[in-house]
Specification:
Blueprint (H helix, E strand, L loop, with lengths): L18 H8 L7 E2 L11 H10 L12 H10 L7 E4 L2 H12 L5 E4 L5 H9 L3 E4 L7 H11 L3 E5 L11 H8 L7 E5 L3 H7 L7 H7 L3 E6 L12 E4 L2 H8 L9 H10 L3 H25 L2 E3 L5 E5 L6 H10 L2 E2 L1 E2 L7 E5 L3 H17 L2
Parallel strand pairs: 1-11, 3-4, 3-5, 5-6, 6-7
Antiparallel strand pairs: 2-8, 7-8, 9-10, 10-13, 12-13
Helix pairs in contact: 2-11, 4-5, 8-12
Length: 368
């Protein structure tokens, strides 16, 4: 059978290994497995959300409210926008797909950083678009500008802060760059980790209202999967001018998130104290990782997210380190696939991080 030829050399997105797989492959007690690979909130979901979902389980046979009125109104109120500026997706990556399908076709140019969220490239290649990347792994706006002037772009992806590296552009630098972009280029600002960045440093904060009002060709993406601890519910959102949002609705399938997902997101927005407490703990624990890396002489990328990227010299191979940790029941992310001798570790709870340090010490000793 023949398939679309653009899919022939397209890589499959590799998600972090689930706990269940590690239990099956290595025979480890599920209670002993720690997953610090997918940037989930290690403190679990807000108890208020759990209580709400439990009370609604009997309604699973019903389709959700496809207008998503209550969630869109709640988001609009939180960010001082109108509900006509909001679209809901099955994770924010579904809205990335809307962006590509709305603007790109075979021969379109899509501009992004060398090392960034893999789905930007995957969605773009699905429609035959050409990928243009900077030489620098981290976001370098001078390189973005040069490439844009040379090639142009139908879509530009800016991951602020960036996954999987953790660095974050300043708002003032982003705005200066965006002022030079043609109004027919769609600018996608992926703010999946913005709650963390804005908590750590106000200069990194991208205000969705200000962004889309200043740049009518911009889309801001957010998610409930990280700080709001709803990774398993798959709820994301996008903000843009009404013309862009109405175009996305022509692509969106009906009932694209579930009844329970919708209710969970609505309830999660009401418990801001839980979110802020999780973020504060995240950066307290991140300091332990920075201290550990300094003690071991490892280079790390200062992070504005809920994970940290640690680089190794040639004497250590990240793939080997990650595999040995996996065999001990500790799941982290090896970045070999991104062309880096590095690992990415989600910042866990105090207990989880202590266990990570202990196991990593064991691995380093074994590899001497």
């Amino acid at each position: 059978m023949k398939f679309n030829k653009v899919l022939k050399n397209l890589s499959t997105y590799e998600a972090g290994k689930p706990i269940e797989l590690v239990v099956r492959e290595y025979g480890i007690d599920p209670k002993e497995v720690v997953k610090l690979a997918s940037n989930e909130n290690p403190y679990g979901t807000s108890p208020k959300v759990v209580k709400k979902i439990s009370s609604l389980a009997k309604n699973m046979y019903l389709y959700p409210d496809d207008s998503m009125f209550e969630l869109k109104e709640a988001l609009a109120n939180k960010f001082q926008l109108d509900s006509k500026n909001v679209i809901i997706g099955s994770g924010s990556d579904q809205i990335l797909e809307f962006c590509i399908h709305a603007k790109c076709k075979t021969g379109s140019n899509v501009l992004m950083a060398k090392t960034t969220f893999a789905m930007y490239e995957i969605y773009a290649k699905q429609v035959g678009a050409k990928i243009i990347k900077t030489k620098s792994s981290q976001h370098n706006l001078k390189e973005f500008s040069k490439l844009y002037k040379k090639h142009g772009a139908d879509v530009i992806f800016l991951c602020i802060p960036n996954n999987p590296l953790g660095e974050c552009l300043d708002k003032k630098d982003v705005y200066k760059f965006l002022e030079s972009i043609d109004k027919n280029t769609l600018i996608v600002v992926d703010g999946a980790y913005q709650e963390y960045a804005s908590f750590k440093d106000e200069s990194k904060k991208i205000c969705p209202k200000d962004l889309i009002n200043t740049f009518p060709n911009a889309v801001y993406l957010g998610t409930f999967s990280k700080a709001y601890a709803l990774g398993g519910m798959r709820v994301g959102y996008g903000f843009a001018q009404e013309k862009i949002i109405s175009t996305f609705y022509k692509i969106r399938a009906p009932f694209n998130i579930t009844t329970l997902s919708l209710a969970a997101a609505i309830e999660a927005l009401k418990d801001e104290d839980f979110v802020q407490d999780c973020i504060a703990k995240n950066f307290e624990e991140m300091k332990r990782y920075e201290d550990y890396a300094n003690q071991k002489g490892f280079e790390y990328i200062p992070s504005y997210t809920n994970f940290i990227t640690i680089r190794f010299e040639e004497n250590l191979v990240s793939k080997v380190v990650a595999q040995k940790l996996l065999e001990k029941g500790m799941i982290i992310r090896d970045l070999t696939g991104y062309g880096m001798n590095a690992i990415r570790i989600t910042i866990g709870t105090n207990e989880q991080n202590t266990k990570l340090f202990t196991l990593l010490d064991e691995v380093l000793e074994e590899l001497k």
